Amino acid sequence: MKQLIEALAYLHSHRILHRDLKPQNLLVDKEGHIKLADFGLSRSFSLPTRTYTHEVVTVWYRAPELLLGARMYCTGIDIWSLGCVMAEMFTKRAIFPGDSEIDQLYKIFKILGTPSEGVWEGISHFPEYTKAFPKWNLIDMNEIINFHSEEEEAFLMHMLVYNPSKRKTAKELLKMNYLKGAKLTAPDMNAFPPEQEADTE
């Protein structure tokens, strides 16, 4: 995770959005070095942000603002995707495996709770938002993931925040205690499960 966050911090400091972070686009060598790959959907950005297409990022790793039709977005979409990747590292399966955009939203809502204006100011202004969304409550993430520490859980949950303006940036994540003792170790190449097929729309 430290390597991936460092890579994102580098990209974002150079005003580049990856826009398609997922396990299939992460290359790991036998020494444990990780590299981001497939920049086919990446774009440069400037502040203030300009309008982009919302149909980016494989749906399982797509941030909720994109699923709700946002056309102005920034680095938070990559942070959300990486949060999904981290959760998958723990569980060995996608945490939000939706088969369509609306199913993807519902998969997220069932775990993180259906967001409201109180949780995410401005959500009702998104093109795909509706008051008719089913109402689910936030569940304890410990029911899904066996965390080793509270720091580990906090680190993940800082990435899976609904409001993109409240998600930690890559630079902020690098300062968190969870990464301070991180050391490069060679991965057990036999531990990786067979590749899952994601919706690549």
TrEMBL record:
Domain of life: Eukaryota
GO CC aspect terms: cyclin-dependent protein kinase holoenzyme complex; cytoplasm; nucleus
InterPro entries, per the entry: CDK (IPR050108), Kinase-like_dom_sf (IPR011009), Prot_kinase_dom (IPR000719), Ser/Thr_kinase_AS (IPR008271)
All residue ranges annotated as the Protein kinase domain in the record: 1-179
MF terms in GO: ATP binding; cyclin binding; cyclin-dependent protein serine/threonine kinase activity
Gene3D superfamilies: Transferase(Phosphotransferase) domain 1
Swiss-Prot/TrEMBL keywords: ATP-binding, Kinase, Nucleotide-binding, Serine/threonine-protein kinase, Transferase
EC number of the protein: 2.7.11.22
GO biological process terms, semicolon-separated: G1/S transition of mitotic cell cycle; regulation of G2/M transition of mitotic cell cycle; regulation of gene expression; signal transduction
PROSITE patterns cross-referenced by the UniProt entry: PROTEIN_KINASE_DOM (PS50011), PROTEIN_KINASE_ST (PS00108)
Keyword field contains GTP-binding: no
Entry similarity comment: Belongs to the protein kinase superfamily. CMGC Ser/Thr protein kinase family. CDC2/CDKX subfamily.
Stated name of the protein: cyclin-dependent kinase
Organism: Acanthoscelides obtectus (Bean weevil)
